[in-house]
Amino acid sequence: MKIAVLDSQAYLEHPVFRGKNIRVYNEVGDTWKNRSQEKETDLPHGTAVCGILANYTDERVEILNFNIFSPSLPELTRKTLSALQYVYDNVDCDILNLSMGLRVPSDPLKEICQKLDKKGVTIVSAFDNAGAISYPAAYDFVIGVDSSRRCTHADDFVYVENSPVNLRAKGGIQRVPWRDPLYVINQGSSFAAPYVTAYIANCYLDGVSKQEILPYLKSHAKYVYPSKVKVSHKPDLAKQIRRAAIFPFNKEMDSLINYRKRLPFELCAVYDTKYSGHIGLEAKGIFEKEPAFTVQNIDRCDFTGFDTLIIGHISEQEGRANQPIKSRILEKCLEHGIHVYSFDAECMKEFEPRFEAQGLLLQYPKLENMELKNKFGKLYLTKSPVLGVFGTTRKQGKFTVQLQLRYLFEDAGYTVGQLGTEPSSKLFGIDKVFAFGYNPIVSQDQFENLDYVNTLMHQIDEKNPDILLVGAQSGTIPQGYYNLGQILLEQYAFLLATKPDAVVLVVNVDDRSDYIRRTIMAVQSLVSCRVIALAMYPKTFQNGWGIANDHKTGVGEQQLLARKQELENLFHLPVVVTGNPSDGEKLLNACIDFFRG
User: What per-residue string of b and e applies to 306-331 under the rule 16 or more CB within 10 Å gives b?
Assistant: First the structure.
């Protein structure tokens, strides 16, 4: 039985190694040789890890200690990959113990670990001591080990279902072998991993196979953390739409109209109710001169010519009309065989079984389409560059800016990953959706939301996009502190979960300059990023007070240009007009220049 240990060099004169079969390998040129090169500066960590293994295995076990220690992270990473390749090519070991790891996913690390796994090597890896998701521990073919206070003995461990963390073991405060002095009190996942490795080695010596080891460990665990999976697998309606109509004509539909030519389906009609005052209005893109649609009365719709109706938020209209507008429209869709994509959950539970019975799809953003995993607070770090779009208030075209950036990058040849927060995001083919704007379908627990968004970011990051776009809702910092509605906890959680490297901040023409400055400083301080450009929304509230009036009107060109120049002079940042095609190159260049350094 051979156990390869990648760590710092063990102190072979330590009493714990007397009578034990242990060899030390050091890098010599482009290979590794059985040669001890002890230095006073050597980290005693490897002595502790190998000492635990030696203490809890017998003479049938041979420990091969590969000294990968380096104070430089790039050099440590290089030596780790070199040692793993050497083990794969030259060593017939049964178990590989790594009481270390990287917080950011590494393709070369994953590839060599996969090769070792296929060769028949069981890989046991400790998770990051600081609490992050780390690699290779998080790979699904590696036994990832964390520390648990439940475990106080060498053979204590707990099993975790449906999690990157497979086992938790004795990593709390304990006495471990060291160099000077010979024993110290220490703690960490680093020391939990060798207890698991030793236990597995003894299991293998008793006849348990590699294929049987995880079920065996589960059956002998001190405790089992049950699975928290909640998964719903249904056909994705957004991928099946051919022709769609939208209802009603409101802010949430602006992006669908602005970027209708980029949709993977044809947008053929716009409807509203007679109570809205919108019937007969011309619907067009934000910078289009010619109308794209004339808003029609939904009561006169014959439900032909489209296969899907996209229904936005209509609770306010229902309140004004005192009519169950949405349920009536859903009845019509059932009658005429029309699929429905809804922006919220109103009436969904009542109608879902009826639509399903008729073979029709009824979909809306919801959290249930998600695997919730026991990660014990561990968060993923993102290797892809992240560009965020945040704002100063509601209703200022943040999603328009996100879509503009998406298509600018795609047209320039970049692959784009994206997390959207508008319920219409899926209709544009955006990878993941966390809809937390108007009438949100999210948890009230912001830690749960942060964990959820962090997992979504990781899932997008695994696709290796050239750029990962994220976009928030509403403002970023409070303008007042006299109502709970002004305290933007959801935005803070979203900002911390997405951790953008750069931010395009969307502002209003009439935002106070000191408020814009405070927002820039807050964003840059919270996640250590850079605000690289401002996008100015070309509309404002008629009375200058958005609390009293939801309606915005366009700003004159002279006022727009004057404010644009003023902001550029104040903040020394490029300023573009939200969604303006003529500003596209300026916005794209600001992003590319930042990420190129």
Answer: bbbbbbbbbeebbeeeeeebbeebbe
- Tokens 């208030």, located at residue: 393
Strands (E) across 241-297 are located at 243-247, 266-272, 282-283, 293-294, 296-297
Question: Which structure tokens are listed for 212?
Answer: 């049987």
Say how far apart CA 545 and CA 540 lie, in whole Å: 9
CATH fold of 2-227: Rossmann fold (3.40.50)
Cα–Cα–Cα angle for 138, 197, 229, nearest 5°? 35
**Between 284 and 405, where is the model more confident?**
405
What's the rounded Cα separation, in Å, for the pair 202 and 56? 9
pLDDT digits (tens, 9 = 90+) for 321-362: 888 999 999 999 999 999 999 999 899 999 999 999 999 999
Measured in degrees and rounded to the nearest 5, phi and psi for residue 271 equal -125, 155
Q: How far apart, in Å, are the Cα atoms of 126 and each of 6, 130, 140, 146, 491?
A: 12, 11, 14, 6, 33
Domains 2-227 and 237-363 equal at CATH topology level: yes
Q: Are 205 and 1 in contact (CB under 8 A)?
A: yes
Identity (one letter) of the amino acid at 254?
A: D
| Distances 431 to 48, 424, 461 between C-alpha atoms, Å | 44, 12, 10
Percent of the chain with pLDDT over 70: 94
Q: Outline where 45-185 has alpha helix (H).
A: 45-55, 73-90, 107-119
Q: Hey, which residues does 27 pair with through a beta bridge?
A: 32
Tokens representing 232 are 């719903």
454-487 exposure pattern, b = at least 16 Cβ within 10 A, e = fewer: bbbbbbbbeeebebbbbbbbbbbbeeeeeeeeee
Sign of the torsion angle spanned by Cα atoms 145, 149, 153, 155: negative
CB 313 within 8 A of CB 250: yes
How far apart, in Å, are the Cα atoms of 522 and each of 100, 398, 492? Answer: 34, 18, 10
Q: For 568-575, what is the mean pLDDT?
A: 97
Pair of tokens at residue 434: 């966390």
Locate all alpha helices (DSSP H) within 232-275, ordered by sequence.
254-258
Query: To which residue do tokens 């950011």 refer?
Result: 104
The helix (H) or strand (E) run that includes residue 534 is: strand 530-537
All structural domains of the chain with their residue ranges: 2-227, 237-363, 371-596
Query: 44, 42, 25: which is closest to 34 by C-alpha?
Result: 25
CATH topology of domain 237-363: Rossmann fold (3.40.50)
Q: Confirm if 534 and 567 have CB atoms less than 8 A apart.
A: yes
Direct distance between the N- and C-terminal alpha carbons of the chain, in angstroms, rounded to an integer: 50
Burial 205-239 (b: 16+ CB within 10 A, else e): eeeeeeeebeeebeeebbeebeeeeeeeeeeebbe
Q: Which of 477, 525, 530, 473 is nearest to 500 (CA)?
A: 530
How buried is residue 71: exposed, middle or buried, by Cβ count under 10 Å (0-12/13-18/19+)?
exposed
How much is the pTM?
Answer: 0.88
CATH no. for 371-596: 3.40.50.300
